[in-house]
Specification:
Layout: H1 14-23, E1 25-28, E2 32-38, E3 45-49, H2 57-73, E4 82-88, H3 97-117
Parallel strand pairs: 3-4
Antiparallel strand pairs: 1-2, 2-4
């Protein structure tokens, strides 16, 4: 399986981020919030927002690298056809990789659970 993060697997336009934020379901964890919008297409895409509240550029970039890596390594476990907009909170800067991974798995489990129940249109999970 190809584990690279390709361009077609990323959210690139403001409209895509806005659609996830306004119409997607919200999955909150300790370190980030995931807005998941079901597009129905076969590719799951990722978009990140790590604001200045998280810390200086070095810390923000580290958080982004870690979140990208979690997405990349766990592509096979994610439901297909979603746009995922991940917004990091300041606690994510001091979190270990293992803690971020646990939060990511928790969010994806919530998403799979909501999908199984048929709540793909609900806002909060």
């Amino acid at each position: 399986m190809d584990r690279r993060l390709r361009r077609h697997e990323r959210l690139t336009t403001r409209a895509e981020f806005t659609r996830c934020y306004r119409h997607g379901q919200r999955l909150r964890t300790t370190y980030f919030t995931v807005y998941a919008y079901c597009r129905g297409a076969c590719v799951t895409r990722l978009g990140l927002a790590v604001g200045k509240a998280v810390g200086m550029a070095v810390r923000r970039n580290r958080v982004k690298r870690r979140l990208r890596e979690l997405f990349r390594l766990q592509k096979a476990l994610m439901p297909r056809g979603y746009d995922l907009f991940v917004r990091a909170v300041p606690a994510s800067a001091s979190a270990s990789y293992v803690a971020l991974e646990a939060a990511w798995c928790e969010a994806m489990a919530m998403l799979r659970g909501a999908e199984a129940l048929g709540h793909a249109g609900s806002k909060d999970v």
